[in-house]
Amino acid sequence: MASNSKPILINRRTLVFLFGMALTQFSIAMPMVQIPVYIRELGASISQIGLFFTISMVFPLVVKVLGGWLADSLGRLRVIFIGSLTGVLTFAAYAVAPSWQAALLGPAFMATTAALTLPAYFAFIADITPEGSRGRMYGISQTIYHAAAVIAPPIGGLLAQSYGYRILFGVSSVVFALAAVIFIYLLRFSQFLTIREQEISLRSLRSSLSQMAGAFMAGGILAWILIIDGFRDIAFKLSADLEPVYLTDVAGISKQGIGLLDGIFGAALLIGLLPAGWLVDRTSERLGIVLALIAAVGSRLIFGLATGFWGFALSWSLAGIGVGFFEPAGSKLITKAVPKHQRGMAFGLLASTLSLFSLPAPWIGSQIWNLFGPRSPFLATAALGSLTVLPAWFKLALPAAPRAATHAAEAATLPTIGHSEVATVLFAKLPSNTADSVYERGKQILLEHGGVLGSSRETDMVACFGISPHRSPPQVSALLATHAGLSLLDALAGTKPERAAAGLAEFNIDIGIATGDVTTSPSPMEYQHDQGVRFGEQLTVMGDLLRAAEQLQSYGPHSGGVLISERTYLALGPALHQFVFGRSGPVRLPGEVRETQAYEVLGRARPLGPGGQPTIAE
Length: 618
What we know:
Shape: elongated
Helix content: 55-70%
CATH class of the largest domain: Mainly Alpha
Strand content: 5-15%
């Protein structure tokens, strides 16, 4: 029977991670819209408020690039945990500040928190999601992340109105501490797979910076992202920090009313995120960005002309929809234009450069207020922002891919040249003194799934799928090998109680599976494990693929598990829904010029097809 099952984008660990990120957003969203009013209560004038937020923008310039680089080097989750600790200090600094000048310590900590968490967060989501589903995944993850923005601002306004700003900041610190507890739990007890970490050194930092700077300076898609988003950032920073002050001083809106408006913004953002992710995956990133820019320009125009609460509510609703459409589209566009191992640096460098461009914008906006009246910064934002729409439509377009867009089609078109073939290799290491009957049972399972067995060291089991005499395309060989690995684990798991009853050591095997190019030789040759494996009597398979499968096996959990390479994951394509996936993380495999992903396969989401044969798509 036909099935429309699709691969699950979010597993349990990812959901816990996103809940932790939602707590960080809740902590930030509660007081953030109130900070300009708080600074005003500490004695700052309109010009001094503009100066405060201009100085605040200096701090991200120093730390955002470092945060993105650390995310690429230390690992995404570790860096997010460190950022959550600085988030606790952020609002503690605001709570104890005796003057608006002293309160500048809060933005310094907040810049560090944002630099450590946001590039790592966006890069992490890209790492765990296939490109064809990345728009939807950004939409879903950002919906969870920003869900806090619906209820947090009204709660923050209520706390500020009833108990004062210092209590509000204290509550925010406590919530950030709860997020830190979640991240340390993920790191210690159910940590995501982190196989290889990049070198942390000045040389590594310089290399990453020079590569990313070259990409931005080359005049391609990254350069246009920088120009358009930079101009947009300048326009909207002219008035963003003046909105709460305008609402209180000019429109007469209460603190609780400001919190309610920010909650309306959050609700509109959520409404925009999911359809935006769907739209981006089915059309193009630039369409999402253009629609976001149009909504944002309309928002500022309405704000400058509004006279009552519901006019401002409409303005903030459009602003939320604009952000909701911009985030999935912009994030996906960046991940498509940047290599995986530099995604953290790309998000950090882009954010730092945008901050540099818009550094004087808050102060300029305050001067426009003083010279031309309170409405003028918002109308100026609408005028400048409208200039970004046409360049975004004509310039933010990636060249058409020469190959099919789906992962299965991508895998199927991998080259075959001469005696080079695309195949999938399975490598398993059995414990020493494994009984001959157990070894023979394992070999029989591999043969039943179409594997060609290789001669190898005494405790190793090696099988190659997709080569003679059972040649098959990569998506078939990957599917057969993955099912074979899980069947091998299922069958050999029965030996555990037998060994325990006999007083023998625990029986655990880890399995590595890699898909890629192998070189086959029709003539027998002396077996050398680091060069090749002889399959049958007349065929020898050589190449980095063998060592890649063995290396993946060595990264296993050592309690019985299957790790597959990124090319195997991509080759599975429409059959991904047949499996349940666990952790994933970066790995540098033999023969690969860059880091790729490894994926843990926990089990089957559905059984094998009729007759015990795996099915690719039904």
